[in-house]
Amino acid sequence: MSEEIRIGVYVCHCGLNIAGVVNVKEVVEYAKTLPNVVVAKDYVFMCSAPGQAMIKEDIKEHKLNRVVVAACSPAMHEPTFRGVLGDAGLNPYLFEMANIREHCSWVHPDDKEAATEKAKELVRMAVAKARLLEPLEKIKSAVRPAVLVIGGGVAGLRATLDLVERGFDVYLVEKRSVLGGNAVKLGELAYTTLTGKDVVNSLVEKIKANPKAHIFLNSEVEKVDGSIGDFRVTVTRRLGEGKEEKIELNVGAIIVAIGYDPYEPAIGEYGYKTTDKVVTLFQLMDILSEEGPTKGELLIGGIRPKSLAFILCVGSLSTTPNAKPYCSRMCCSASLKTILKIKEKYPDIDVYVFYKDMRTYGKEEDLYWKAIENEVKFIRFDEAPSVKPRDKFVEVEAFDTTIQERIAIPVDAVVLANGMVPATDTEKIRIMLKIGCGADGFLKEAHLKLRPVEALTDGIFLAGVATGPKNIIESIASGSAAAAKAATIVTKEEIEVEPLIARVNEDMCSGCGICAALCPYEAITIEVKEDGKRISKVNSMLCKGCGTCAAACPSGAMQQSGFKDNQVMAQVVATFRGE
Amino acid sequence: MKPVVVVGGGIAGIQAALDLADQGVKVYLVEKSPSIGGRMAQLDKTFPTLDCSSCILTPKMVAVDRHENIELLTYAEVKEVVGEPGNFKVKILKKPRYVDVDKCTGCGQCVMKCPVKVPNEFNLGMDMRKAIYIPFPQAVPLKATIDPEHCLYFTKGVCRVCERFCPPKAINFNQKPEEIELNVAAIIVATGFSLDDARKRGEYGYGKYPNVYTNLEFERLLSSTGPTKGEIVRRSDGRHPKKIAFIQCVCSRDELTNKYCSAICCMASTKEAILAKEHLPDVECTIFFMDVRAFGKGYQEFFERAKQEFGVRFVRARPAKIEEDPKTRNLIVYYEDTETSRFTKEEFDMVVLAVALRPILPESLVKSGLIQPDNYGFADVPEMYIEPVRASKPGIFVIGVLQSPKDIPDSVIQAGAAAMRAAIYAISG
Amino acid sequence: MSRTVALLLKGEVSSILKSLGARNLYKCYQCGTCTAACPLSEEVTASFRKAVKYAQLGLEEKIAADPAPWLCYACGECSEMCPKDAKPTEILAALRRYSIIKYDWTGFSKRFYLSKTFELMSIAILSILTALIVYLFKGPVITERVDLSAFAQPTVAIANIIVFGVLSLILLINIYRMYKFTTSQSSSSGKLPVSTYIAEFIKIIPYHFLTQRLMARCRDGKYYYTIHLLLFYGYAVIFVHHILRHMLLPLISPTLHLNEVASSIVGISAFVALILGSSLAIYGRIKKSTIIWEYSHPTDWVFITLLWLTSITGLLTDIFKYSGLPLPTYVTFTVHLMFVVPLLVLEVPFAKWSHLAYRPFALYFNRLNEIKQLRYKT
User: Fold this and answer.
1) What is the rounded distance in angstroms from the CA atom of residue A20 to the CA atom of residue A14?
2) Any CB–CB contact under 8 A between C26 and chain A?
3) Minimum Cα–Cα distance from C43: chain B residue
4) How many Å apart are CA B227 and CA B217, to the nearest integer?
5) B172 assigned to some structural domain
6) Distances from the Cα of C184 to the Cαs of A409, C92, C188, in angstroms?
7) pLDDT tens-digit series, residues C173-197
8) What is the pTM (predicted TM-score) of this model?
9) Is the Cβ of C9 closer than 8 Å to some Cβ of chain A?
10) Where does residue A447 rank: exposed (0-12), middle (13-18), buried (19+ CB within 10 A)?
């Protein structure tokens, strides 16, 4: 601790990005006046090879033990400069960055003097913090080369097949007695004679032939402990006659592919369950399937309908009080492909489609065009149609916004294109795995755009409709994508995480539990020691270093490495007190 | 283990490269332009989260640049591919930048001194770049490139100003094209899209009336790195518009041009209308649409927000034509509101056309039959229900808008899927 | 208040419409481009898109009530801009044919439009009947000079009464039915004063009847408009000339005669106009040179062919007459009548030619609805 602090400050021009506004030379001269700064230099691109070499040489020549770079955002080049320190034999965490580009030159291009002053202040703050930096070591842990896949629908199956083909052991846990999930009910798929079942079978056959795949049917995940690289999982398998067994698994990553439930209309919602002439789209697809109750013959309520009305957005787009606000994405196309298959088999049937927005996106627009050409009649509504069962027929009535008139159509049967809702298990899985879900009830991805198959908790990945409505193709793709992410974990022998996490000073901790309650990653638990003392414990693999606990800790026992109270306070003080 | 080639450095290609490299697979990422980033780099913000596009993309671009398993081959094109899954021979032509990338620091001195101005592709020709240029500030790699078609030295044999002013002496007029041959296990193709030519629907006046824009041009207008530094101003007179019309399905859902729906435009225009409102609080935004295709996660909610919170007006109509008032350069949009059956001529001072996405198929792979175009010209995916990213030939994967119109999350998912499937070939190769 | 329309099942209406020329009816996805593309939308309140939707759904009453098809002069602008290639021009033409069927209370139109055999048979029967009447009731056949009046007087007199009396009556009844249809589906139930009816009638009917100004507003309409004017005025002149010469003047005084030279110039030039117009139209339809002529229903061919034959034989009759060739004159005249009678009897009240009345009246009824809606807007 008595070691003399020797700081080097490096100010980057970033071409003209910084130097065009900030007087770099002036900042360098100012840095030289700051305490403990033994060397200060500028360079046109500090991140370039010559810039990096300069820092390395200085570390050796001037015996630097802290480095400050004033340049761009740390998100951009902090890892670069930490690497420079490491190469020069210095602990990489004895490095601080001042962002004088995004925070300074880019936002104050019109006031060069003030921008230069601000750059000086930012450097002063960084130096103040650098003085108090401590060396940190990356945290490493062994990785189990196996993956748990929860859910045996198409997404889970695809992920399983990919990972076993890639050479990893996969434990596939399916609640029901068969694999395939909802896809088996989809019947013939668009543009093909392939059925959902065929797709499932082709995946299942290959999985079963691979010794790396371990399938657990009638099984549910009961408990999950541990963290990325080393999850300990308890699975319960029902054996029949009320018996069950518990299986312990140890995996490096988890893929959640728990799928969805078809929206179940309330009794009386569009006449549902008040007459056997109203069925859901999922029921219809079952009726049309060869293995269905009618062996594929179109019979609804015992008769072969001569006319059919499809109502779209059932359970979606807030069309009824029970409906969800979101779009279920696949029902438009699924309805139209079903109609086209029906029209092919029964050309004389009259089909009416009540829709709100025709969402046949991408190439599926073709289904809409084909349906129009097949003389399917489309009625556009804003307010949900009413369905009135009569003696011999069902009357569907709606205000058609395209002609601004109410239209009532007597039909033989009504099909409700029901959407998707989160699977019943979603809540249980969410709590067990400590992952989030959105307002729509589906599991939440780490980032909607760029991390769509990752959960916020490291090592847990999401596939299929678990995160929101998708069609079968998209579900399968996301199964592969989640598998790829899992592979990036289990392919490594060891996993390294940043040491910039929360740590507890056990002597100061009173075990009040505020931190554990606030932690958004559920990384903190309260443990009772042998002497009865309660202390918090941080799981370093789960902690993201957000600092919430450290900020809330009343005693100061919780400290955030790299952003300790004294380090941050030194920065704050330096902000207001010119040195 | 054998390496994998990823063709195309947009978000799909970037993500595929990262997902492979993170699995320990060596990746060559080939990009035909001087920088990776693709279309996403040109966007201002992204729907439905309104994340700044380059803010979420740039870290990925930097990660590619820094990844020990990724070799970036920018300004390069795949010339020829032969072979079988697990064993493809790929010939890549690296075009000369006439700049030694090992020496170039990206300082921009050369760009400042270069006397030749050329329409700037990154800003869709709405401003000028130099004959030596760095495509955009966040470019990866951040290196200068000489455009020999416009450089005075290459066209007239004079100048060489850049050479004189380059501090690290990186300019090299003698650079020659370089051919690289790789032996790879699999190829992931993510060559993306361009917008169709809005002039095909001439009745909207694009290219004739200055205040008619494509949506990509409008993204550049919104962007702080765009030609107007983020100010929405009219091409004709530099004024802020008071009324903007967004017209959907231009060259999409159209028998004459492209029959498919371009999938992203509804949400993109909704977003652009919201951003316009954020830039100019008094601007009135109207979106002319046929169906709101708000099908993705959070999209319907985003559309509702646009209506309720931002007051964006949605009119269910496909305008037939636009005429220009030659005095004011305002635009008169002819439409029938199909929900009231009323014909209206409404005046706007700016019109933004949501133009269809057209896939860019790499010629070399189409020629050798490794990728087959489908009815619409997208890359065909024959086994779409089982292997949704596999091209006609096994071992070749097609992802992103190249295979069908799609948004960023779906492109990213496909990138992961292709990385997974390609990795299986790589480890057994 | 909007009513509920109960849709009848069976695609009867749509299959009729398809046979009437709505080839691409089931392509339309209701974007509204057609209405917005129409050069006339600025002048008249009509939704052509909605007309197409009525057709797709097969809403019979709505179709019959909708004046929109009559406001279309088939310039083809909408078909050119239609993103679905639904050819609204053709759909609207089919809807006009369908409306003619609906307006006609005799049921004759329906059979005429839907059966080619019926169409040709009725023409043939009328022709033969005409020949027979001429043969039976002909006047003296004077061979030393041409005296057509003597030859034709009795038959023409009979024909005048039948043609102008009966046919006008049928047409008037059909127009009244058109009126009932248009008001039956009107969204406002309010009434208008009789003075409005009269004032609008005076404002609209003669003006549009005589100028067909809306047609001139069509895009590239000039060429087609010119042909149409040739046909219209060629016919109108002959019609007026005929009335004057054979009905009005003899009625006033048997000694009153038109100047023979002037009369012959007027007659011949009108026939020339008709021949020119109908020849160009036939040529256009064969060549499918514009969107309007891309599709020709059998009744279109019959109409234009009858017109052409009528004009040719009319002109020949005049030529023979003034050349002093008695027998050829009488024969050609008989043949002429064999074309004129079916043309007038079939086309004016029951088929294509009825548009001469329906078009201006559609404008008139549409205007009345507009006024009503303005007045009773809630």
Assistant:
1) 9
2) yes
3) B343
4) 10
5) no
6) 21, 21, 10
7) 999 999 999 888 766 667 888 999 9
8) 0.92
9) yes
10) middle
